[in-house]
Specification:
The chain is an alpha/beta fold. 29% of the residues lie in helices and 18% in strands. It has 2 domains: 8-235 and 272-300, Rossmann fold; 240-271, no CATH class. The protein has an 8-stranded mixed sheet with strand order 2-1-3-4-6-5-11-7, sandwiched between helices. A 3-stranded antiparallel sheet has the order 8-9-10. Bound molecules: thiamine diphosphate, iron/sulfur cluster and magnesium ion (MG).
């Protein structure tokens, strides 16, 4: 049966495949997989129109487990393959799945370009601060002094923050979610799906084998209230037990300050505006424990999308020229040889 002709809405279970899931028991990837399947069903995604593209890593096994089209490509190159797909068929619904190693080591260059070009796709970066698949080497997001097989004395590289990187590349949608915070994660993924342009989502994912509980400081039940701020559009940036703490503007630092709130200072608390780039950048750069870790949609400000039409009009302008004409036009010189 040609499913394109059916209008039956698919359920989350319909997006499961017959493939054996090869992640370690207890890996955070399972919860993300469940959330993505739920979101696909809720937004009414169609199998024939949806493609999951990944690079290499535990996270990059994702396309095997989603019953849509899928490409398990080469290390770091999912954005390049996705760019080709979207230029050839801009109506496709493309999801890129990458890891902190795949997306920010070997693929950092490709990630930069898909973000600045603003192709219409969702990019999910599973951040577990390690190379899970290759047995736990430190990655570009590993915190300083991480001991691993490739950094036995403790890493000395300053880590990159994926969300700050995406904002710096010109991404127009940047969000964070946590593997175990399913409700927020599904809302974030839905917002990413509905955003026109490259929607970047960093997901804190627990690698139970090589980096267990590395995000406990702001994700463990006991720490969540005091150390995580789940931002929502139009809502004050408060956190802490009973909302006793909040973010205020510090004019001396031209930045944010985490303040204990009193009756007087409550009015100074900033309100979240996802359209404000400066606020998004400041939220993304907050580090725990001095600040709470900001999760949710940090930035959502749609901009012009890189389309096939743009590429075609560029090509059309040149169709009347031969390659020889093109090579001899503009800034070219003839070198006379003297024998
Ligand atoms: C060209 C190339 N270089 C290196 C590797 C080895 N390699 C495979 S996966 C990986 C890192 C994966 O880390 P990450 O993207 O964080 O994914 P995770 O396994 O943590 O989900 C590396 C270095 C490779 N497969 N290909
Ligand atoms: S090695 Fe880590 S990231 Fe990879 S499947 Fe196992 S728990 Fe998950
Ligand atoms: Mg990783």
């Amino acid at each position: 049966m040609n499913e394109q002709l059916t209008s039956t809405k698919l359920t989350a279970a319909d997006f499961a495949t017959d493939q054996e899931v090869r992640w370690c028991p207890g890996c955070g990837d399972y919860a993300i997989l469940k959330a993505v399947r739920t979101v696909l069903a809720e937004v009414g995604a169609r199998r024939e129109n949806t493609v999951f593209v990944s690079g290499i890593g535990c996270s990059s096994r994702f396309p095997y487990y989603i019953d849509t089209y899928g490409f398990h490509t080469i290390h770091g190159r999912a954005p390049a393959v996705a760019t080709g797909m979207l230029l050839a068929n801009p109506d496709l619904d493309v999801w890129i799945v990458t890891g902190d190693g795949d997306g920010l080591s070997i693929g950092g260059n490709h990630l930069l370009h898909i973000l600045r070009r603003n192709l219409n796709c969702q990019i999910l970066l599973f951040n577990n601060e390690t190379y899970g698949l290759t047995k736990g080497q430190y990655s570009p997001t590993s915190h300083l002094a991480t001991r691993s097989p490739s950094s036995p004395g403790g890493s000395i590289d300053n880590p990159v923050d994926p969300s700050s990187f995406a904002l710096g590349c010109g991404a127009r949608f940047v969000a964070r979610g946590v593997d175990t915070q399913v409700k927020q994660l599904t809302e974030v993924l839905k917002a990413a799906y509905h955003h026109k342009g490259a929607a970047f989502v960093e997901i804190f994912q627990n690698c139970i084998v090589f980096n267990e509980d590395v995000f406990d400081g702001f994700t463990a039940k006991a720490n969540l209230a005091e150390h995580q701020l789940q931002v929502e559009p139009g809502k004050p940036l408060v956190y802490g037990t009973d909302g006793s703490r909040g973010l205020v503007f510090d004019p001396a630092a031209l930045g944010l300050r985490a303040a204990e709130l009193s009756e007087d200072s409550a009015n100074d608390v900033l309100v979240h505006d996802p359209g404000n780039y400066n606020l998004a950048t400041a939220l993304a750069r907050m580090t725990n424990p001095e600040f709470p870790m900001a999760t949710g949609v940090l930035y959502d400000d749609p901009g012009p999308v890189y389309t096939v039409q743009g590429a075609q009009s560029d090509a059309a302008a040149r169709t009347d020229r031969t390659l020889k004409d093109a090579m001899r036009s503009g800034f070219s010189w003839k070198v006379d040889r003297k024998s």
